[in-house]
Design a protein that fits this description.
Length: 515
């Protein structure tokens, strides 16, 4: 855990990675607590109303482990976990890690092609799932372990003799910019997430803390920003599945389980804001995935009663930067400061740190960095420039704060200007008639590209393109306003709630071809 410090500089100066030679995720997240305090609550299951203790969670995971052993699973084998937020989902991952297997999180909203690509690429031969998931897996030739097929007794024995670099979990990227790749992480991945999770929740682990996220546990944001850190820190984690984010259900979950700490993806925050929702009783709210603007931060203070702490990372190397209202005030438009243990820089094409805008990169040696892309040595090599892992995001450093400009392939080049879409999106979102928006570059023979905005209006609100163009002109630079605006009923989104810019870019390119 982070040692408390009066300032950010003191916190950072006093931190060192302490990775033992032997490290097992199941031990770290569950088994240590199950031996020390077996009656301590680990998971609050919203579906059943049950409070699952660490002792019960360890016992359930050992039953999964026994079933996997009976099916021939051994160290290094890949095991799919096709389950939503539930005690069994947590237990399945723990079982894999305890026996030295590699868990592969799979999302319940995947369809056949998405499942096929991940199962085929990973070589998973067994998938732990429920009755719904078993139906989804019918087209595939593999072993399916259903929840009703678990033996009554669990596997005995110590955890596999793993170390920090031993492969543990294979998490696929969201695929917003190409075919999803499997980021292979070692047993050190949870240790690597803990400082950023604690920081983004104003030192998570205070008396009375209860943690929840609407993000699915199939993604790194749900699995390692919430579930496993909560378990490791002894903070009860709420398991509550929502097929689609619903404001009333969200507020009900927070109220019923006395949730004090929430990770809200930006899309969820925007939905809450559009509904004029108010949530009380929270101690911390963290958000990551897309930058928040000043308007959203101000709304959070008024509607949620807290300062939203933004954090930054990606599947390949997560929780590398964060805000922490307990230590310093956020800067609107910035993603926070480097988490203790992480060295972040903006670098050029040669891998040298630069002043001004460049590629956001993280130095090798931090614990949440992937081991490699699964079976893709060339892609792994391309991810690094010397000692730096390149995130693929453009940004700049401002007095230690990271300012996000845009994805490297999202930056708009117009009449000699390089324009990041995030700032324009933030500006448009402050307009009372805008529910959500995606901004891309549209090919233009004169300017190379023009700024094109795709806007979803708030229900019952009429707003036209000219009004929104004037809104941006009045608040940003004259060259960066959207020269074209189209209104849509919905934007293309990933399952994690991010705008799929490549689909909007394809749409804009097709429009140019028709002009």
């Amino acid at each position: 855990m982070l040692q408390s410090a009066p300032t950010y500089d003191a916190l950072r100066a006093g931190f060192r990675w302490d990775l033992p030679a032997r490290l097992n995720l199941a031990e770290q997240a569950c088994d240590l607590w199950s031996r020390r305090d077996p009656d301590r609550v680990a998971i609050l299951d919203h579906a059943s109303g049950a409070a699952v203790t660490y002792g019960a969670l360890a016992a359930l995971s050992r039953r999964v482990q026994a079933a996997l052993l009976a099916r021939g699973v051994g160290p290094g084998d890949r095991v799919g976990v096709l389950l939503s937020q539930s005690p069994l989902c947590a237990a399945a991952h723990l079982a894999c890690w305890r026996m030295g297997a590699i868990s592969v999180p799979l999302f319940m909203l995947f369809r056949e092609d998405a499942l096929r690509s991940r199962l085929s690429d990973s070589g998973a031969g067994v998938v732990v799932t429920d009755a719904e998931g078993a139906g989804m897996l019918a087209p595939f030739d593999l072993e399916v372990l259903r929840e009703d097929e678990l033996p009554p007794d669990g596997a005995e024995g110590a955890a596999f003799d793993s170390g920090p670099e031993t492969p543990a979990v294979l998490i696929y990227t969201s695929g917003t910019t190409g075919t999803p790749k499997g980021a292979l992480h070692g047993h050190r991945v949870l240790t690597g997430h803990l400082p950023g999770v604690e920081m983004s929740h104003d030192f998570l682990g205070q008396p009375g803390d209860v943690l929840w996220t609407p993000a699915d546990w199939a993604w790194i944001g749900g699995l390692f920003d919430v579930l496993m850190p909560g378990l490791a820190l002894g903070v009860p984690v709420v398991a509550a599945r929502m097929r689609r984010f619903d404001v009333d259900e969200c507020t009900r979950i927070v109220s019923e389980h006395a949730v004090r700490n929430v990770f809200f993806p930006p899309t969820a925050l925007r939905i809450l804001k559009a509904a004029d929702a108010r949530i009380t009783g929270l101690r911390s709210v963290a958000s990551g995935g897309e930058p928040l603007g000043a308007e959203m931060l101000a709304w959070g203070r008024a509607a949620l009663g807290v300062t939203i702490n933004e954090f930054y990372g990606q599947t390949e190397c997560n929780m590398v930067a964060s805000s922490c209202a307990a230590l310093f005030d956020p800067i609107p438009g910035a993603l926070g400061r480097a988490v203790p243990g992480f060295d972040i820089a903006v670098i050029d094409e040669d891998g040298s740190p630069v002043e001004g805008e460049g590629d956001i990169a993280v130095r090798r040696g931090c614990a949440s960095m992937m081991l490699e892309y699964w079976n893709r040595p060339e892609a792994t090599a391309e991810k690094f420039r010397g000692d730096w892992l390149v995130t693929g995001d453009r940004g700049r450093l401002d007095a230690g704060f990271i300012r996000f400009v845009g994805r490297e392939d999202d930056v708009i080049t117009s009449a000699g200007y390089r324009i990041g879409p995030a700032e324009i999106e933030d500006c448009l979102l402050t307009h009372p008639g805008v529910a959500t928006v995606g901004v891309v570059g549209k090919p233009d023979p004169l300017r190379t590209e023009i700024v094109k905005a795709y806007v979803v209006r708030k229900p019952g609100v009429e707003v036209d393109a000219g009004t929104l163009q004037a809104w941006v002109k009045d608040r940003l630079a004259s060259y960066s306003y959207p020269r074209e605006i189209s209104f849509l009923d919905a934007l293309p989104m990933t399952v994690t709630g991010k705008v799929i810019r490549k689909e909007l870019k394809a749409r804009a390119a097709a429009e140019t071809a028709q002009d």
